[in-house]
Amino acid sequence: MKRAIKNHTPDFVAILVLLVLAIVVVGYVLHNEGFRFPFIQSTPFTVNAEFSSAQAVTPGQGQSVRVSGVQIGTLSGVSIMNGVAIVKMSVDDKYRHLIRSNATAFLRPKTGLQDMFVELNPGTAPAPVVRPGYTIPLAQTKPEVNVDEILGALDADTRQYLALLVNGGGQALKGQGNNLAGVLEKFEPTHQDLARLNQAVAVRGRDLQQLVSSLRRLNDALAAKQGQIVSLIDSSSTVFGALASEDSNISRAVGDLPGTLRQATATLAKVQAFAQVLGPTATKLLPAAQALPAANQALAALAKPSAPIIRNQIRPFVVAARPLVRELRPASANLAKATPNLSKTFDVVNHFLNMIGYNPGGSQHGYLWWLAWLGHIGRTLFAVQDGNGDYRQAFIQVSCATIAELSAGLPPALASLVLNVYNFAPILADLNLCPASASKVNAAYRAYLAGKAGQTSNTAGLANGNLTGALTNLFNQTLGKH
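Given the sequence above, the corresponding C-alpha cells read:
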C-alpha cells in the first residue's frame, strides 16, 4: 500500500484535498441549515410559542428566530395540541436572558415563497426572564395573515369597490413608480417619529392604566374604612387644636431646633464612627456569645463538685502554707538574682547539645552518629575473652613492600619462621596481591629452574618438596638484593 501511495502521490493528495473540501462544504451547508454540531456548539435554549396557524413552518430548513432583525435562533420543531400549533424555538444560549414572560411572537414570511421566520419581541421589565421550555401563550402571538383571508372577510360589494380602487390606483401610478418611491422615502423620518410617539403613548397608556387601577383600589379601601377616616379627621382636629394652644411653645421649640440639629449632627457623626468600629467587633463576638451557654453549663458542672474541694481541702491548705510562703520570699529573691546566670548557663549547654546533634549536609555524619559509632566500637574492646579473662583484639595493616623489607632484614631462620607462621610466602608470590614482589620471586624461580640460579639451598628445598622453604630462600635472596 505504501508503494502504491508513493507511485500515485499526486492522485492521493488530490483525493485528500477533495475529501477535506467535501467535509468543509457539508459542514457549511449543515451550519447554514441550522444543524448544531455536538461537542462544538452549546446546547440551545428552548422556548415554545402557541399559534393559531403554523402554515409553511418547516423545522430543519434554517427558518430563523429574529429580534429586531438579528437572528437569535432557529425553528426546531412544530406540533399540535388541543387544536393549537406549538412552534418550538431553539435560541442561542447567549440570548437566553433577553426573553421575558410578556414577550410576543409573530410569524412572518421572509420572501414571497413562504420562507417563514418568527419575529420575536422579547418583552420588558418588570416581567421575569423565562425558563427553558416556557410557552408563549396564544394571546401574545399572531400568525401570518394571507391576502385571501383579508378578502374572504369582506362582502361582495366591498370586494368590488376594492378591485375598482386597486385598478384605479394602478392606472394612476402607471409609469410613476419612481416618483411614488421617492415620496414614500421622504415619509421615512415621519414614520420613525410616529413610531417613537406611538411607543411613548403606549408607555403612557400602560402607566395611566396602572394609575386608574391604583386609584380604584385606593377608593375601595377608603370606602371600606369610612368610619376610621371620620375618627381620624376628628382626632386630627383635636390635635390641631392642641397645637394651636401651644403655639408659643412650638415657636420656641422651632427656634431651638437648629442648635439641637447641629448638636445632633455632631453627636451622630461620632456615633457613626463608634458604630463602624462596633459593627465588626460585635460580629467577631458572635461566636463567643454563641458559645457562652455551653461554657456556662460546663462551668456549672465543674463548679458544683469543685466547691466542697475548695472549701474543705484547698482553703485549709492555703491557710497552712501561708507562713511557709512568707519564709520562701528571701529564697525566691536570691533565685531571681541567680536566674540570669542560670539562663546563660543553660543557653551554653543548649548550644553545645545543638552542636552535637547538628547533622550538616553532604556525605559526613553528625556528631551524634559518631558518638554512637564510638560506643559501638568501644563495646567490642571487651567482647572477647578466654579462660584467662578478657583480651583485646588488634588489627595490623601492612603493605607488600613492608613485609618484603622486614623479611629481608631478618636472619634466614627467623625470616623462614615468619613467612611460614604468618603465611606471607604465598601472598608475596601472588601477582594479584603483590605484583612487584611476586614478579621478582617468579623471575628468580624461573632462573633457578633454568639452572642459572646455582643456589644449593634452593635445590635442596625443591628436592625435599618444601615449596615454602624454597620460596623462603628465594625471598631472602631476591628481596635481600632490593
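The chain has five domains: 1-32, 42-152, 183-245, 255-357, 400-480. Try to locate this feature in the C-alpha cell string yourself.
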